[in-house]
Amino acid sequence: MTTTEHRWEVAPTRGAAGTALLVVLLLVAANAVYGGVGLIVDGIGMPSAWLEGLPVDTWTWPGVALLVTVALPQLVAAWFVWRRDPRAGMLGLAAGAGLVLWIGVQVLVLQQYFFLQPVMVGVGLVEMGLAGWWIRHHG
């Protein structure tokens, strides 16, 4: 019988779901770090026109935001998955949901479409699915 306090815990072994979640979290984090640093350094070729309507005139702050709101949560979740912490599944769900939310806000604020946006929404949903699978197979 599962108690309320253990409902979100993951199995003590990583298994296929936990291992796949770890790989996806690390790949997203690495790409977010690359993108965030690239935006800070030189904008990585992003059009300045996309900044219209934002309270900034360079890609520096969007790069910082990418590092803080995507890379950091993905790395934190990956750390918990690596350690097989009982809360890893919940953090994986949160990281995936945060990624989906980031893309939604990005589309609303920039009002621009970029081919990676639907890809990253899909990746966020995959993270959520893997975390949910790992949580469901607890015990």
Explain what this protein looks like in three dimensions.
The chain has 139 residues and is mainly alpha-helical. The chain has one domain (12-136). It is built from four helices and no strands. The chain has helices spanning 15-42, 60-82, 88-110, 116-136. The longest helix has 28 residues, at 15-42. It is elongated, with a radius of gyration of 17 Å. The mean pLDDT is 92.
The tally of helices reads: 4
Report the sheet-strand fraction: under 5%
Which bin fits the share of residues in helices?
A: 55-70%
Number of domains: 1
Low-confidence stretches: none
Computed structural class? mainly alpha
| Terminal residue distance | 10 Å
* Total number of strands: 0
Radius of gyration: 17 Å
Largest sheet: none
Q: What is the 3D shape?
A: elongated
Average residue-wise pLDDT = 92
One letter per element, helices H and strands E, the order comes to: HHHH
Pick out its properties.
single chain; 139 residues; mainly alpha; 4 helices; 68% helix
